Amino acid sequence: MAELQTALEDVYHWEKTAPNRLWMTQPIGEGQVETYTWAQAMDQARRMAAQLKSLDLEPGSHIALISKNCAHFILADLAIWMAGHVSVALYPTLNAETIDYILDHSESKLLFVGKLDDWDEIKRGIPRNMPCISFPLSPPNDYESWDSIIARTEPMRENPSREADELAIIVYTSGSTGRPKGVMHSFGSMAAAVKGGEEIFHAGPNDRMLSYLPLAHVFERLCVEVQGLHTGMQLFFAESLDTFVADLNRAQPTIFVSVPRLWLKFQQGVFHKLPPEKLNRLLRIPLLNRVIKKKVLSGLGLQHVRLALSGSAPIPPDLVQWYRDLGLELLEGYGMSEDFAYSHASYPGHGRVGYVGSPMPGVDVKISDEGEVLIKSPGNMTGYYKEPEMTAECYTEDGYFRTGDRGERDEEGRLKITGRVKELFKTSKGKYVAPVPIENLLNNHAEVELCCVSGSGHPQPFALILPAEGLRPKLVTDTERQRFEGELRALLSEVNRKVEPFERLQFLAVVKDPWLIENGFLTPTMKIKRSMLEDTYGPRVDQWYAAGQPVVWEA
Q: How far apart are CA 555 and CA 545, in angstroms?
C-alpha cells in the first residue's frame, strides 16, 4: 500500500488546489440549501480551530459532538483535529443516561451541539458545567453559537499536521448489549482504510454522495467523511425522513451506501406502486426491459449510481439479486467499529450473492476452529478507551481480532457470515441454533420488514415477524389479515424445507408495534437488539407455543 496521507493533509490539498470547487450542500429548511466551497468551509474550520486553541486545553483533549449529519459535523471534526485534539461523536438518538455516561467516561472537555430531534431528552444528559457550542441548525439553546465565534475569530493560518499514530477519534459502539465501548482510532488507521478502498472503488472528485446514515458510526465516517476528504467528492446532506426523496434527487449520487433495512424499504416502495408479479412480467418483455429498469431506478433517485453498497447488517441474498436484475450491481461490505469498517467488500464484477466479499487490500483473515472470523486489518483500532483488559481479550495470541462473527469462505476467499458466535441458542433438545441464516430466509419475503428468530429452551425455535410498514395499517381488516396469514403459512413451509430439522420454526408471531431506534428495538445502525426483543415479547412466548398454530398474532 502506498504512503498514507492523513485526513488533514487531504483537506489542505483540496483547499489549495480547488478552493472554489463546490464541496458540501446543506439543506436549511423549506427547500433551501447552503453551499460550501473548499475555501469557504476551511475558512470556518480554521476560525473554529483558532477558538479551540485559545482555550489552552491540554494537547490531545477529548472534544465531543452530538448531531445528526450536517456540514458542521465535518467542520467541527476538522477544527478539533487542527487544534490538536480528539473527536468524540455521540449518536443523536441516545437517551440522557447514555449521553451522561459517554461524556463522563470520555472525559470530554467541550461539547458541540448540532441538529437534533429529541432535544428535551438529550439536554438532560448534558452536565450543567459542560461548555457547549451550538451549530447553526441546533435546537434553541443558551450556548454560544458557532456563527458568533466564526464572526469574531481570525482564522488559523498554519497547517497543523498530525502523526499517523496519534489518536483521532473515539467511537462509542452503538450498544446492542451493555454499556457502549469507546473504540479508539488513529489518523493512520483511518487513512489506511481510505487508501485501501480507493484501490478497489476508484472514487474521485466527480463523484457525489448523500450523507444520511449516522456520522457517529465508522461506516459513514469512512464512506462519507474521510473518503470525501481524500477524494474531493461532493457531499450532500439529507434534511429529514420526509424530504429524503427530494434530498436524494438533489444529490443525484454516483455512490450510494445504505443498510439492508433501507434497501428493503426502497424495494417495498417500488412494489407498492408496481406489484412484483406485474414488474417481473414487464421485465420479461425485451422491448420494455431497459425502459422499466431505468424508470424504477430513476424513481428511487439512483439512476446515476455507479457504485452501490450495503453494509452494517446481513442483507437477504434475494434482495441483492433483485437490485442486480434491475441493473444496479449492489455490493456488500463487512466491517466493524474496531477495524474502522475496513475488512471485506464485494469487488465490482467479482461479487457473489450471499457473500460479504473478499478481504480488502492489506487485510489478513482466517476462520478459527470454532468457526469465528479472525481479522488483521490496517484499520484496526488502537484499543478500547480505559479498557486494556477488554482490549487484550479481543485479540488472539498471534494478533488477530476476534470479530464474534461466525463465517465460512469459498474457493476464491470470499466470506459468508453465518451468524454471531454469542447469538447461538440451545433448544430443549440440546441443539444449537444460529438465528441469522434463518432470518435471512424470512427477510426475503417482500412483506416482512424485520424478523427475529428465538426459542432458547423450547423444543423448536420460532420467529417474531414485523410486517412491512405500508402493510401494517391494512392488517386491521379481516380480509387483509387472512391474505397475509396465508402468505406467512407458505413462507413458514418454504423456510422449514430449507433448514435442518432441529432449526424448523414452530410458528411465526406477527407483532404490531414498529421496531425503531427510538423505542430501543434497533441500534443506531438499524441492527435488531435481540435481548430487548426477547425481554419485551418473552412473557407471551409460552402462550404462543401453547396455541399450536403456525401463525399467531400479537394481541
A: 15
Q: Are residues 387 and 508 in the same domain?
A: no
Q: Which amino acid is at 482?
A: Q
Per-residue pLDDT of 393-430, as tens digits, reads 999 999 999 998 889 999 999 999 887 787 888 888 88
312 sits in the region (left: phi over 0; alpha: psi -120 to 50; else beta) called left
Selection from 226, 162, 261 nearest residue 379 by Cα:
226
Rounded to an integer, what distance in angstroms lies between the CA atom of residue 218 and that of residue 388?
A: 21
* Alpha-helical segments (H) within 132-172: 146-152
Residue whose C-alpha is closest to residue 535's, from 467, 464, 443: 464
With respect to residue 324, please indicate whether it lies within any of the assigned structural domains.
yes
- 328 and 367 within one domain: no
CATH code, 449: 3.30.300.30
> How many domains is the chain built from?
4
Same domain, 431 and 414: no
Residue 357 has what DSSP assignment?
B
78 and 215, same domain (yes or no): yes
Residue 510: per-residue pLDDT: 96
**73, exposed or middle or buried, with CB in 10 Å at 0-12, 13-18, 19+?**
buried
- Pure H helices in 138-285: 146-152, 187-201, 218-220, 227-231, 244-251, 260-273, 276-283
83 found inside a domain:
yes
User: How many helices and strands (H and E) does the chain possess?
Assistant: 18, 27
Radius of gyration from C-alpha coordinates of the chain: 24
Higher pLDDT, 214 or 175: 214
Which of the 8 DSSP states describes residue 459?
A: S
Which sign does the torsion angle of CA 44, 49, 50, 54 carry? Answer: positive
pTM of the model: 0.84
Residue 412: count of CB within 10 angstroms of its CB:
9
CB atoms within 10 A of CB 327: 13
Distances (CA, A) of 204 to 4, 192, 254: 17, 17, 10
Cα distance between residue 456 and residue 433, in whole Å = 9
Question: Are residues 407 and 263 both part of a single domain?
Answer: no
- The packing angle between helices 7-17 and 71-82, to 10°, is 110
Expressed as residue numbers, the domain containing 77 is 7-236
CA–CA gap between residue 424 and residue 433 (Å, rounded)? 5
CATH number, domain of 376, equals 2.30.38.10
